[in-house]
Amino acid sequence: MVEQHRAAALRAFVDQLNELRDLAGEPSLSDLRKLSKPVIDGGAGLPRELTESTTHDILAGKRKRVPDWAWVVSFVAACRMAAEQTGLDVRALGEVAVWNQRWREARAARPDPPTIRAATAPSADQQPVADPVPPPAPAARPVIRIEFAPLPEETQRLLQIYGRTGTRLLRQLHDGDGPGYMRLAVIALLKGWPDEARQWLRRAGDAGQVDAPKLFNDSHRLRAAAQHAYSYARHEQDQRPKKPSVAMFLYRLAADHGHAGAAYQLALIHQDKEEDGAAASLFGRAAAGGDINAGPYRRGSRRMGELGPAHADDHDRIPPSDEPGSPSGSRTHNKLSISDRLVTSGESSTSAIPQSAFRELPVGDRPQ
Predict the structure, then answer these.
(1) pLDDT in tens, 221-273
(2) What global pTM score does this model have?
(3) What is the CA radius of gyration of the chain?
(4) Where are the domains of the chain?
(5) Residue 94 in contact with residue 20, Cβ under 8 Å?
(6) DSSP state for residue 308 in the 8-state scheme
(7) Helices marked H in the chain
(8) Which of 107, 121, 288, 323 is the most buried (most CB within 10 A)?
(9) Which residues 6+ apart lie within 8 Å of 287 measured at CB?
(10) DSSP 318
């Protein structure tokens, strides 16, 4: 029981660290390392240099122990600097005191080390031995202080539901933006807020989005939402190939819900950034999910750009169907469907979708 509690606390803390990186604009692992390097090497001289391999292992949940405080405070400071460099509001990242409290809570869940007790009481003729003089405490490291004013409650709520990237997309909406409403509905669904998603789907229906009632009424709506997120990410990547942050955000949401094609595309982006640790992990997830091209990458026999033209469209992977009557484990390897093209291109019906098309289903699709 104690071990399970410790593992749960560690997973929760790692999730918080990943959310911090997302709020900071998803800086690459190599960028975090550069920011943390000693001043003489052009960095900020943080307490711990954030090597790519260590950072990847911690954020991927591969470490069995809570990282030490020097690494945590360096990670928080590097994320803050990355956010400042890209013009993001750093106040959402949290104060160092808050992170120290989270770190202490995660460490407090560890089982206490065993104590050594004397097997028998000392005899009367034994002389008491003086306790050894403890060694002097090491000099304390300088504390990095990052103080932020608290965010307004509404901003905190939006960040909790949509994340930093999703909140930015929300603030770019304009009235009647049907495709934008659909994107936010998908994000809310995949981040575990079905009630928010339903509101956006109704607005998308009012704006004529024919896929809104389909997703609203889908009995496997998380699987469907993951496919939508993947389609949006492909479209976003085609439109802004040099600014992949939104595409990566959407790919990650889809990959976290079992979409092998999204894991594969996200792995390619990390590989292009020379973040081989993160890429290898995602190639493994894609291969486990059935992506036919991820296996060779996982084994290291291929790199990006070495696939022949016959494989060009094999990455638009749809997760295995769990609809009644579908073949077990069947997969579709086609290009984007007509429905996907409708979503990504913003095409819609000429009139609003009647609200009678939206039927309420029991709330049972919140991600675990």
Answers:
(1) 999 999 999 999 999 989 888 778 899 999 999 999 999 999 999 989 888 87
(2) 0.53
(3) 25
(4) 2-108, 154-259+318-357
(5) yes
(6) -
(7) 2-23, 29-36, 52-59, 69-85, 96-108, 153-171, 178-190, 194-206, 211-217, 221-239, 245-255, 260-272, 276-288, 294-298, 338-345
(8) 107
(9) 260, 294, 295, 298
(10) B
